[in-house]
């Protein structure tokens, strides 16, 4: 992976200044915090909606800019980006394009939005491999390997270079879920055939804003099963069959956007697009390593720390102390983002004693 971020972009201090995050909010892996600009923009838009001052076409510039900002953030051309509301519906278009009996390889304990669209069809073969062995598990029989770039439950960062290299050798497509990565980890979505991302976590948008990127050579292998009136280059030219012409780019995979959510998302993505994301990653990793040292645990060198907490006793201690964390799969999950500081590290240490 690589990033086009430059030294002229904001650092973490500039980005963090736009959030009113309380000490102890360590749950970006569950839900991001909206920046003040997003809250203000959505509030103003709702007020306009409440007095009949908006029309559907008013949101087109908002959606166009939000799409372009996301494209820049993940390093692809805007023509390769489709918009949606949830990742599973985007993954479903990848699943629909696979032939009967095709093998889909996934990691063990993968988030279900990456897996269920393939399983639900009942005509594909799902195979599971341990996360650390995903690259070596790809064979000539593998049609597609699907994985989260950063694992949801544990925060592990997969060896994307090994996976994409193995997939290329065997002619398999790659599908990467960036939901737990975009906004904290530098990303080049062009490294993968398809990526999906729901932006309400690390990119701090309202829920209901998701994106898919598609390599041009992979686009013909998807089926736009969610196609609707917005799946066209100019959806307002004619919304009625059969006059409307579909898009020749990734917009043919668009689903009609949730307008108010995109109003807030544009403001959030403006902030992240102005930021050096590698600095955000370094900031989060440094805090995570600091906490690991303070607790006498091995450093994990990532933004999300995770360890077994089968009865959620430690999660309960943090919650009682006003620290917001999470506990998927019987683990304690602590996520450091741009707004976190050493005060958050101290809050966890104090709570866990």
Structural features, described:
This protein has 353 residues and is an alpha/beta fold. It folds into 2 domains: 96 residues, Aspartate Aminotransferase, domain 1, CATH 3.90.1150.10; 228 residues, Type I PLP-dependent aspartate aminotransferase-like (Major domain) (Aspartate Aminotransferase, domain 2), CATH 3.40.640. It contains 12 helices and 9 strands. The strands form 2 sheets. It has a 7-stranded mixed sheet with strand order 1-7-6-5-4-2-3, with helices on both faces. It has a two-stranded antiparallel sheet with strand order 8-9. The longest helix has 18 residues. It is globular, with a radius of gyration of 21 Å.
The residue-averaged pLDDT reads 95
Which runs of at least 5 residues are low in confidence (pLDDT < 50)?
1-6
What best-fitting shape do the alpha-carbon axes yield? Answer: globular
Q: What is the CATH class name of the largest domain?
A: Alpha Beta
The CATH topology of the largest domain is what? Aspartate Aminotransferase, domain 2
**Radius of gyration, taken over Cα atoms and rounded to an integer in Å:** 21 Å
CATH superfamily name of the largest domain? Type I PLP-dependent aspartate aminotransferase-like (Major domain)
How many E-type strands? 9
Structural class: alpha/beta
Number of helices, counting only DSSP H or I runs of 4 residues or more:
12
- Number of spatially distinct domains: 2
Helix content: 25-40%
Biggest sheet: strand arrangement: 1-7-6-5-4-2-3
**Strand-residue proportion:** 5-15%
Taking the alpha carbons of the first and last residues, their distance comes to 38 Å
**Biggest sheet, open or closed, and with what strands and sense?**
7 strands, mixed
Secondary-structure element pattern, one letter each? HHHEHEHEHEHEEEHHHEHEH
- For the record, the CATH architecture of the largest domain stands as 3-Layer(aba) Sandwich
